[in-house]
Amino acid sequence: MSKGFYITTPIYYVNDKPHIGTAYTTILADVLARFNRDAGSDTLFLTGLDEHGQKVQEAAVERNIDPQKHCDEMAPRFTDLWEKLHISNDDFIRTTEERHKKVVQFILQRVMDNGDIYEAEYEGLYSVSEERFITEKEAESGEFRDIKKLKEKNYFFKMSKYQKQLIDHIQSNPKFIQPEHRKNEILGFLRQPLNDLCISRPKSRLNWGIELPFDKDYVTYVWFDALINYITAAGFNQSTKQFNSWWPASYHLIGKDILTTHAVYWPTMLFSLGIPLPLSIFAHGWWLMGDSKMSKSIGNVINPMDLIDDYGVDPVRYYLMREMVLGHDSNFTMNSFIQRYNSDLANDFGNLLSRVTTLIKKNYDGVIPEPGSLSDSDMAIEKKGKELPGVVNELMNGMRLNDAIEEIMQFIRTVNKYMEENAPWKMVKEDKAAAGNILYTAGEALRLGAVLLSPIMPNRTATLLDALNVEGHDQSWGRLEPGRSLEDHEPLFPRIK
Ligand code: ME8
Question: What is the rounded CA–CA span in Å between residue 338 and residue 138?
Answer without folding.
Answer: 41
